[in-house]
Design a protein that fits this description.
49% helix, Nucleotidyltransferase, domain 5, 5 helices, alpha/beta, 152 residues
Length: 152
């Protein structure tokens, strides 16, 4: 069972994929776009990656505020989720991504990666961080999917 993990940002989407056993997350790429609202190519690429890796689910990071409130980024992420459901036609699980970029930054700093190189890969590493956190938590995926379905 492979899962595609996404870190959805205003100009980029970091992408990670799980191994077939659902134990580890590996970074794939960063999808960049010029216009924040033009998601056509972004969704097309995600669709290609889902097919290439035979993904069964998409894990989408939900950028809640530290006090657990939903801000503008959460609203945009929820709209992106709707587009993914409609166009990619795979189940989408939302996952709290608070501190994912901070965690990714720490990993890259500990690997002694230069600031310039960190900037180029931080979104992909954040997607890895989100997906690995999900995999490590060993969630009941069927239950999560049912909850997501009920919220739609």
């Amino acid at each position: 069972m492979r899962i595609i993990g996404l870190d959805f940002g205003s100009k980029t989407v970091g992408v990670a994929v799980s191994d077939p056993f659902g134990w580890t997350a590996q970074g794939l790429e960063i999808i960049r776009r010029e216009d924040e609202n033009n998601l056509k190519k972004t969704i097309a690429r995600i669709k290609e990656l889902c097919k290439e890796y035979s993904a069964e689910y998409i894990l989408l990071g939900l950028p809640k505020n530290m006090n657990n409130t939903a801000g503008e980024r959460v609203e945009k992420t929820l709209l992106f989720k709707k587009r993914l459901l409609k166009e990619v036609k795979l189940p989408v699980i939302l996952w709290d991504e608070r501190l994912s970029t901070v965690g990714a930054e720490r990993v890259l700093l500990s690997a002694d990666i230069s600031r310039a190189k960190r900037k180029k890969v931080i979104d992909k590493q954040a997607a890895v961080f989100i997906l690995q956190g999900f995999l490590d938590s060993k969630p009941d995926i069927k239950k999560l999917l049912e909850e997501e379905k009920n919220e739609q």
